[in-house]
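Recap quiz, item 2
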Amino acid sequence: MDINQIKIKVEGVNFYYGSKQALRDIALDIYKNKVTAIIGPSGCGKSTFIRLFNRMNDLIPGARFEGKILIDGNNIYDPKLDVVDLRRSVGMVFQKPNPFPKSIYENVAYGLSINGIRDKGYIADKVDKSLKDAALYSEVKNRLSDNALALSGGQQQRLCIARALAVEPEVLLMDEPASALDPTATLKIEELIHELKKKYTIIIVTHNMQQAARISDYTAFFMMGELIEYDITSKIFTKPSKKITEDYITGRFG
Amino acid sequence: MKRHFDEELKKLNTDILKMATLAEEAIFKSIEALKNRDKELAQSVIHEDKKIDELELTVEETAIDLLALKQPLARDLRFITTGMKINAELERIADLAVNIAQRVLEIADKPILKPLIDIPKLTDIARKMVKEVIDAFVNSDENLAKKVILSDSEADNLRNLIQEELINDYMSKDASTATRAVPLLLIARHLERICDHATNIAEDVIYMVQAKVVKHHPEKLKNNK
């Protein structure tokens, strides 16, 4: 195994929706510039888990968090922490592409303008760069003022990635980013993820185990709110340590 | 579209080529050791086989990972599965070179039985077959692969010739030559087996390129389109 730098440290995390416990005593390290996939059956807590990293779960009434999550050593559940700052450095891409009903350009520029950036030249450069990094630029460069909703689903998803990249995050959370896309668009997103990990630390939730196998460096298998196994992806998919992991990935489950 | 996967396939390809180079080198050295009665060189062939064994495991592991993680299909699938088989064949070829080296150690200190003529010829055929079949693999060249398969009979004939000569001209006439003749006979047999493995690789290459099974169906080689 190569030497990895820890980007995020998860320690003793429990999470509750009211009286229902969704995550139990989770501890793991997420490595910098790696893709970490979270897999597990529906309701295992994987989406809850990924939403801890930008404190999206704070918005849910009755939700309660215990434990520690450190990004670069800083506890993101520190009451003094500015959640807006956190969400700027931890970007998120969702299952269904959700561009704003605005132009392609404005979609990417939006995050910058709400952050108070007024320098038009800077914004224009940033939009170009983000679209390039999201592997969308060549397809839209001549139609930046077109409405984003006119793009195909795969293009919309890459636009959402460009939008997330524009504010220069360090961590990218992806919750089923390709599950609403056709195989070609999916392949493009997967290729993009390979490129993006050079600059970002990526955590991806996916139902699609083959996708986790294809794109991730590390895989965490969750079940019923517990982290069952966490290891290098090739190990999880060729010789998992736990029988229950093997049963799940080989479809012998239940 | 550029695929990240292609980089990984290229790495597998490179490792298989490295295997082939090492195996070919082992054949060459083992026969040089025979010609020059060079025990040190024979020992080095035996010793260096460890490298080939390790590389075999690496290639196997890479291929298994690619199968498990990338779900390859069609051409990609045939390339990886063929690569795994070729890997095993090359490892066997290297083992046969080790066997030749062991025979060299048995006879190196004994007086020369006869000048070597046909064994070097058979060696040339074996090395050429291995070299060509790897070229065929690298360039996806099914015609070259077919040529390799067809040259196997030449190797068989030469082996038979060597065998007959050693039995009829030496061992039948003077049983005391057996300790020197049998190792030579075995060397011819090892070389001929190397050619068989090259033939297996050629059949695998044709499968990889054309998705056509010629193994156990020699007639399919002739009526190809």
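Chain B has a mean pLDDT of 94.
The helical segments of chain B are 4-36, 39-70, 74-107, 118-138, 142-171, 178-210, 219-222.
End of item.
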